Amino acid sequence: MRDYLNHQNTEPLANDYLGGKLYAFKPIKGPVLTRHTIMKILERITDDTSTFTLKVSLDLGLSTSSVEVRGNIVVFPQDEQISLNKLSSYVNDIDDDDVLAVICNDLRKIAFSVGKNYYKLKAVGPHTAPTLEINGIHMHRIVDITPWEDSLLKVRCARVRRGMRVLDVCTGLGYTAIASLLRGAREVITIEVDEHVLEIASYNPWSWRLANDKIRVVLGDATEVINNIENSSFDRIIHDPPTIAIAGELYSKEFYEELFRVLRRGGVLFHYTGKPGHLRGINITKGVANRLRQVGFRVEVVKSACGVVAFKPRSN
Length: 316
Known about the structure:
By secondary structure, this protein is an alpha+beta fold. The chain has two domains: about 15-25 and about 140-310, Vaccinia Virus protein VP39 (Rossmann fold), CATH 3.40.50.150; about 30-110, no CATH class. It has eight helices and 20 strands. The chain has helices at about 35-40, 85-90, 145-155, 175-180, 195-200, 220-225, 255-260, 285-295; strands spanning about 15, 20-25, 30-35, 50-55, 65-70, 75, 80-85, 100-105, 105-110, 110-115, 115-120, 130-135, 135-140, 165-170, 185-190, 215-220, 235-240, 265-270, 300, 305-310. The strands form four sheets. The protein has a nine-stranded mixed β-sheet with strand order 1-2-16-15-14-17-18-20-19, with helices on both faces. Strand 14 (about 165-170), helix 4 (about 175-180) and strand 15 form a beta-alpha-beta unit. Helix 3 crosses helix 4 (about 175-180). The termini are far apart.
């Protein structure tokens, strides 16, 4: 078994936009499996297996599809197929948290290395949204909450409503951008600095709804892109940065001043902080809240969402 995807070096870009590049997100659709799915298929196999069909999820729990077993061949939709012998030999090489794409009648882990960085789509359950892992650090909360539930909570904290224009800083797998649209946002501008993250997202069924005319994915550095956004452009902002140790500039007072500027009066910002260092007595959230107040926000800490909600006053 070849362990990983063949990393693509081409970027699906369009025109310059807000100091970045407008990224033409294109889902790479095909059967997506986990070890759980493969075991479910193999459990139906008997010595006298002929032809039968069974229902399994090929999109990490979003729906179910029919898979046909014809003798020694498993036939998936999109005319992909894998021999039972190959599938059986693969199963011992697959970890429970691997997510696999069926490509050219073979399995590929949705993971690759670029330079010193290792990107992996990581399953957190057999039928739910996966998380993104970069160098072993996962980008969503996964303890007692799924990545999708985590994203829904962030969007609820931002109080996204129908007809609103939303700025989503740090796209990742696109869950908060998609959830904002599902809550009725008329437009979402989402910024991601790392094209490799978007490449991983293109294989993830839970990310495919990023390909929507109401969502604009901007590939660029948020600290530069935001300088090109007009004052009071957004009703809501969701700021979901990596940890402060990785992206300290996204926690700076200077960046918060820009967030304050582009948010309309009466607008709401949700800033995810997480709890890095809390076991050592470090309180990242306190510093974030203080800097947000310094630039003019009224701030409420929301422990259940591991972040803060910041309100821009309606008047001076």
